[in-house]
Design goal:
The complex is a heterodimer of chains A (462) and B (537). With 462 residues, chain A is of the alpha/beta class. In chain A, the strands form three sheets. A five-stranded parallel beta sheet of chain A has the order 12-11-10-13-14, sandwiched between helices. In chain A, strands 3-2-4-5 form a four-stranded parallel beta sheet, sandwiched between helices. In chain A, strands 7-6-8-9 form a four-stranded parallel beta sheet. In chain A, strand 13, helix 16 and strand 14 form a beta-alpha-beta unit. Chain B is α/β, with parallel strands linked by helices and 537 residues long. Chain B is built from 23 helices and 16 strands. In chain B, strand 13, helix 21 and strand 14 form a beta-alpha-beta unit. The interface between A and B is large, with 81 and 89 residues. The structure holds iron/sulfur cluster (2 copies). One iron/sulfur cluster binds next to helix 12 of chain B.
Chain lengths: 462, 537
């Protein structure tokens, strides 16, 4: 397995990727668009991209992922895609009857420079129907950028400030997380008795129930009315800087809704931070039930700390998720030694960013030095691991090849997970999610301990 | 329910006029009283239609090149295209030299904005240099994605310079996603270059063993190719190369030494089959190793071709012993499947091949079609001369193979060839229509809307398709099976594969999970009584 990866690390200057840890913008945009109620995502480009994005999302969620495409051929590539897009708009509303069509571009349409907003303006869109768009060139950023860009489009096309005084209501941008996580975040906010609008919200869309009937537009998703109303909220919480802060900023500029950028609430510290922000902004007490949950979590953490303490771990995946997981494993006493994301933004001196800084800051506080990299690939991660092996690898499904090659216990978290089911229904956020993470980490490590134990050391109680 | 033209029209009537006019030509109901039934295929999908089709790049790198294990495949483009074709197609491969098996690697130039503006050639050159330094492969392929063609990167020149510098073959494929109308364009592009630059470059003049064959259009999904090879080797064939499942550059170079080429997937590789015949005089035989009868027939046809007494005896002996082993098991599953109905839509050959296996299990196919086929895949090769080349296909370079004066050799005499052609599909494929029942529906590039409508009308028990509509179908309470990936099961080819397929399909029908779709409270009225000590009053 991966036998061609050498241990010696040679500098690679080309900027090419070997076994990437990110993918392209449109898939993130497509996912975000699914989080609008009765919305059909539309991929403006050749149909191959759309096919790949639907394929990958479907494999992760194991649920229908509907999206249409402008079906470019060589001619449209030369003469521009205006005609294709206009035909698409007509056909989509006639045949599939969505309320909203959310268009994103592909590399092709970006390269030829189709002006999508002008095309939309001259297209004939029926009364009450809405077309929005985001530019999502894949030669910039990653799928996380695409998610952020489509969420920005929701703001720029739909959000409006219509009231003289803001409502006592919070906007929540959950970032590129699973519907199970979105549900859990909503539960936390609800239990604090605060009015909220979550956008995008894919819960109820890509985890819809089996009823024996196919619904092109399942019940979930943020309604257009709700997105409009985000401009009237008192506060926006952008969960996860990479996926959520740009749309929150835009909403602030456009409708004067102040934004707080928080970490994706993975683990105890980030969940505390979320609840404290809500408590302080809305003068609400933290309900007893959440305090009990937190207490249970701490109980579990202290009960089990010896399973984790001092264990080394390598973490990779999307920046907001990796940041959250890193913070959590640190709070368990674990030692992250390799931390990597494929999404660019954050080599220490770049203006864009902060991934490396964020992680390094956490590690420095904990007195740990580690390999930290943004815009990295799994080839690099694998070479790091060859030189400094770890007790546990945490990341998306692609990590399984490294785990097998190096015989390391492996825990699946993030996007995409293509070889296990149920993950998208169950949260990793909040106190409950943290409990689940502990269960996953300890099961992974203890199963391994059992597997490796000699007969005479094999124990009933661990 | 009996399908007829009026019902079909009702479905089509729901489309906007222009769409209706177009889609009408892509659908027909099989009527054997009609001598020919023309279908439109390999034409553009309508913008805005939810299609399952992919792109030329997917056909080239994803299908044909990807499975060649001892080459490093570099994707020149932004990250996504490389990423999605990485380990997603289940073309398994193993190698004696694990240091020359690159099947689990994904290499992309990850073009950035500056590469789009200033050109990506330099970056590509550097990536090739790094690949040579790190992996030391025997050969490299470069595949272009959409932006590359638009910005005008000269991949051919980069490849040429890299060949000179590193002394290994670097093949460049201009398979930008917008070429042609589907994956099909990419198959063609890959076929052309493999033929032009790889096949025949091996040193062997003659195969090292008797009855040498190439297995074309077999991608070893779920290990299909290995099951076919197992049977062929047992009979006594020498498999020179498999194109391209578990394929190797080294083996493909010597593909010219085969005495017969077997074509499994007609669409993706018929070009190579034809060119091999022109260049080396090697005939091709259309085979189908999906289904028990298909496998047996293919094996017997091969025996007829080689016309060797021992080979024929061995063929029959293997068939007999395999049948004795698998038939009792297969029969068990047949009991579960008998009387059921199916839709069979996928790719460019499986939509036909799997119908055999369905019918062996007693399952009738009501609707079938292909995602990216041409008219000949539906109507048979006889229609090829009448197919109009439209603008989209004209962009695909047509490589014409020429006779290799040194190596061209007739494998059988012209008279014998004619005699064989009357008996077996040598250089011939009759198309899907030929095998389908009257009244069944054939649909090219079936889309989401039609899928829903046809299901509502005909209510099949199983729908075989790809990942994008799998869950759509299942949400309707209908068993669905992916025939691109086999739902991560398989192999489904050959004798063992038929049993495995029967088992998987039966599992789908017999699963108790379907029984829970309707909650019990939906079927029972709310009882008016109350719970008493004796139970419900
Ligand atoms: S062409 Fe661009 S948008 Fe399409 S799959 Fe490739 S990287 Fe993604
Ligand atoms: S059988 Fe279908 S999926 Fe496979 S290569 Fe042929 S056309 Fe493609």
């Amino acid at each position: 397995m991966l036998d061609c990866t050498p241990k010696e690390i040679t500098e690679r200057k080309s900027g090419g990727m070997i076994n990437p840890a990110k993918t392209c913008q449109p898939i993130g945009a497509m996912y975000a668009a699914l989080g609008i109620h009765k919305c059909l995502p539309h991929s403006h480009g050749s149909q191959g991209c759309c096919s790949y994005h639907r394929m990958h999302l479907t494999r992760h969620f194991r649920d229908p992922v509907m999206a249409s495409t402008s079906c470019f051929t060589e001619g449209s590539s030369v003469f521009g895609g205006g005609a294709n897009l206009k035909a698409s708009i007509q056909n989509v509303f006639h045949i599939y009857k969505p309320d909203v069509m959310a268009i994103h571009t592909t590399c092709l349409t970006e390269t030829i420079g189709d002006d999508v907003s002008s095309i939309i303006k001259t297209a004939d869109v029926a009364e009450g129907k809405l077309v929005i768009h985001a530019n999502t060139p894949s030669y910039v950023g990653s799928h996380i950028t695409g998610f952020s860009n489509m969420t920005k489009a929701m703001v720029s096309y739909i959000a409006e400030s219509t009231l003289p005084v803001k409502k006592e209501q919070v906007n929540i941008i959950p970032g590129f997380v699973n519907p199970g996580d979105m549900r859990e975040i909503k539960r936390l906010v609800k239990s604090m008795d605060i009015e909220y609008i979550m956008f995008p919200d894919t819960s109820g869309v890509v985890d819809s129930p089996m009823t024996g009937e196919f619904e092109m537009y399942p019940e979930g998703g943020t309604t257009v009315e709700q997105i409009k109303d985000t401009g009237n909220s008192q506060l926006t919480l952008a969960l996860g800087r990479f996926a959520s802060s740009d749309p929150a900023d835009l909403l602030n500029k456009q409708c004067e809704v102040p934004a707080a950028v928080l970490k994706t609430p993975i683990g105890i510290k980030a969940t505390d931070a979320l609840l404290m922000t809500l408590r302080n902004s809305f003068a609400r007490e933290i309900p007893k039930e959440l305090e009990i949950e937190r207490g249970q979590l701490v109980d579990i953490m202290t009960d089990t700390h010896f399973h984790f303490h001092g264990k080394t771990v390598a973490i990779f995946g999307d920046p907001d998720i990796v940041t959250g997981i890193t913070e959590f494993v640190l709070s368990l006493g674990m030692v992250p030694v390799h931390v990597l994301t494929g999404t660019p933004g954050g080599s220490s001196n770049s203006a864009a960013g902060s991934f490396e800084d964020d992680i390094n800051e956490m590690l420095t506080t904990a007195g740990i030095t580690a390999n930290v990299k943004s815009a990295g690939d799994l080839f690099t991660l694998h070479q790091w691991i060859k030189n400094q092996p770890v007790d546990l690898l945490i990341g998306n499904t692609y990590g399984k090849y490294i785990a097998r090659a190096e015989d390391i216990p492996f825990m699946r978290v993030g996007f995409p997970i293509l070889d296990r089911s149920v993950h998208s229904y169950l949260p990793i956020v909040g106190y409950q999610g943290a409990m689940r993470l502990i269960e996953m980490i300890s099961n992974t490590l203890l199963d391994r301990a059992d597997r490796d134990a000699k007969d005479e050391d094999f124990e009933l109680v661990m | 329910m009996e399908m007829n033209e009026a019902k079909l029209q009702e479905i089509l009537d729901q489309y906007p006029a222009k769409v209706q006019k177009n889609r009408k030509k892509h659908i027909f109901i099989k009527r054997s009283e009609l001598e020919s039934q023309q279908i439109e295929a390999n034409t553009r999908t309508i913008p805005g239609i939810i299609t399952n089709r992919g792109c030329a790049y997917a056909g080239c790198k994803g299908v044909v090149l990807g499975p060649i294990k001892d080459m490093v495949h570099i994707v020149h483009g932004p990250i996504g295209c490389g990423y999605y074709a990485w380990n997603t197609r289940r073309n398994k491969a193993k190698s004696d030299d694990p240091k020359q098996n690159f099947i689990n690697y994904c290499i992309s130039t990850d073009m950035q904005e500056s590469d789009i503006v200033f050109g990506g050639e330099k970056k590509l050159t550097k990536v090739i240099d790094e690949v040579m330094e790190i992996f030391k492969p025997k050969a490299i392929t470069l595949s272009a994605t959409c932006p590359v063609g638009l910005i005008g990167d000269d991949m051919g020149a980069v490849a040429k310079a890299a060949e000179a510098k590193h002394g290994v073959q670097v093949l460049s494929f201009s398979c930008e996603g917008y070429k042609g109308v589907s994956q099909s364009a990419g198959h063609h592009i890959a076929n052309n270059i493999l033929m032009e630059k790889v096949i025949g470059t091996g040193e062997q003049e003659e195969a090292p063993a008797k009855f040498p064959i190439n297995l074309l259009g077999e991608y070893n999904i779920g290990g299909d190719g290995w099951e076919v090879e197992r049977i062929l080797k047992e009979i006594g064939y020498h498999v020179v190369s498999v194109m391209t499942g578990d394929g190797s550059y080294e083996a493909i170079k010597n593909a010219h030494t085969a005495e017969l080429n077997l074509v499994q997937c007609h669409r993706s590789i018929n070009y190579i089959a034809e060119m091999l015949e022109t260049k080396y005089g090697t005939p091709w035989l259309k085979v189908n190793f999906i289904g028990i009868q298909g496998t047996i027939e293919s094996l017997r046809n091969m025996a007829l071709y080689f016309d060797d007494k021992e080979l024929t005896l061995k063929t029959e002996a293997v068939i007999a012993s395999e049948l004795a082993r698998i038939e009792p098991v297969f029969e068990q599953y047949k009991k579960i499947c008998e009387g059921k109905t199916a839709f069979c839509f996928v790719g460019g050959s499986r939509g036909h091949h799997f119908q055999n296996l369905f019918s062996e299990l007693g399952i009738e196919t009501l609707l079938a079609g292909y995602e990216f086929a041409h008219r000949d895949d539906y109507e048979g090769r006889d229609v090829i001369p009448t197919i109009k080349t439209d603008a989209d296909s004209k962009n695909i370079p047509h490589y014409t193979a020429e006779v290799d004066e040194k190596r061209f050799r007739l494998k059988v005499s012209p008279e014998k060839l004619e005699e064989l052609k009357a008996k077996i599909p040598l250089g011939q494929y009759n198309g899907m229509r030929f095998d389908m029942k009257d009244g069944s529906i054939i649909v090219d590039d079936l889309n989401h809307f039609e899928t829903e409508e046809f299901i509502k009308l005909l209510k099949p028990d199983i729908f075989t398709s790809g990942i994008k509509d799998k869950y759509v179908i299942q949400k309707m309470g209908i068993n669905s099976k992916q025939l691109h990936s086999y739902d991560y099961s398989g192999p489904y080819a050959g004798f063992n594969g038929a049993v495995k397929f029967a088992e998987d399909i039966s599992m789908g029908f017999a699963s108790p999970t379907w029984n829970f779709i309707t909650p019990p409270w939906k079927n029972q009225p709310l009882l008016e009584g109350s719970v008493t000590e004796e139970g419900v009053a």
